[in-house]
Amino acid sequence: MATTPQTMHHTTTGIDNRKLLMWIFLANECLFFGSLIATYLIFKGEPMPGPLADDVLNIPVTSASTFVLLMSSLAMVLAVYGAHHARPGMMKVWLLATILLGLTFLGFQVYEFRHFAHEYHLGLSTNQFGAAFYVMTGFHGTHVGVGVIYLASLLFASMRRNGLGRETGFHVETAGLYWHFVDIVWIVIFTVVYLIPA
Amino acid sequence: MSMETGQHAEGVGHVEHPPTTIRQYVMIGVVLTVITALELAASYMDLGALLIPLLLIMSAIKFAIVVALFMHLRFDSPLLARLFVFGLFLAIFLMVAVLLIFGNDDSRRAGEAGEAAASAVASVGALI
């Protein structure tokens, strides 16, 4: 089983600085999403003019989108496996699968936002629930969108003559870290927003 | 920096690639799906005060599985784990602080009372 050669520079930590940077970025993102989720929780269950969470949230549909995002994480880890084990075909197939699943999740989000806006007239400024919900899930959706662009650029780059080069495993693994983080944020949001009652 | 004092790139706590097999990854995916299904089922059941702790525990388990096994933190350098966990605990601390300060009517009234007292003290000070 071939392994991807590492061309890493010397570091005092023994860790590639780019990988360290990604983990520091993700630690920072914990704070970012933590503040958004905390803001949502402040208003959860508070009396306010409707529509409220119980009026609009569709648990079965969101459960389906949660499953899609979970499967995209599985697809991503299989792409990383392919990249690390010098199996470019496997890597590309599962990268494409991750992208398609990510786009499907975004489709669910777009459907949800449009449904809330058109059927329930819930907007950013309707009430505190609307503001907190749209900002929190909107930022998460934006992160998913950025992730899709990130993965698509990797997939296109892998189709060049030299592919992603000698650091293929590293590049795909780093992208995988970002994608899995987006998934774990949704794990928290799904539980806090959709499953836990007010 | 010498090789003795510096740490070589491949030296400390670094794994070329994790030992997890494809079959194991798929099993982990199945486990995550099952836990999600259990969370969903629990949300429809009348569990009373047990519901919220149960949901939080299940989502924490999913969180830990993805971070440890999909993000390979279990197989990687402890420094990365410390960094991420530090950020996570900072985020939890921030959430708790925000919820304690702004989270209920009593705290908001307490905050307003505090502001009123501070402005009263300032007014008296201005008079003096």
3D architecture notes:
- The complex is a heterodimer of chains A (198) and B (128).
- In chain A, helix 3 (59-84) runs antiparallel to helix 6 (168-195) and helix 5 (128-158) packs antiparallel against helix 6 (168-195).
- Chain A has one domain (17-43, 60-195): Four Helix Bundle (Hemerythrin (Met), subunit A) (Up-down Bundle).
- By secondary structure, chain A is an all-alpha fold.
- Mean pLDDT of chain A is 92; it is low at 1-5.
- Chain A has six helices and no strands.
- By secondary structure, chain B is mostly helical.
- Chain B has two domains: 1-76; 77-128.
- Chain B contains four helices and no strands.
- Chain B has helices at 22-44, 51-70, 78-102, 105-127.
- In chain B, helix 1 runs antiparallel to helix 2.
- The longest helix of chain B is centred in the last third of the chain and has 25 residues, at 78-102.
- The termini of chain B are far apart.
- The relative contact order of chain B is 0.07.
- Residues 1-15 of chain B have low confidence and may be disordered.
- The chains are: A mainly alpha (198), B mainly alpha (128).
- At the A-B interface, helix 1, helix 3 and helix 6 of A face helix 1, helix 2 and helix 3 of B.
- Calculate Rg of chain B over CA atoms: 25 Å
Q: Helicity range of the residues of chain B?
A: over 70%
Radius of gyration of chain A: 19 Å
Shape of chain A from CA axes?
elongated
What percent strand of chain B? under 5%
Helix count, DSSP H or I runs of 4 or more residues of chain A: 6
Along the chain, the helix and strand elements of chain B come as HHHH
Overall structural class of chain A, as computed from helix and strand content, comes to mainly alpha
As for the number of domains of chain B, it is 2
Distance between the termini of chain A: 52 Å
The helix count of chain B comes to: 4
What profile does the largest beta sheet of chain B have?
A: none
The portion of residues forming beta strands of chain A comes to under 5%
CATH class of chain A: Mainly Alpha
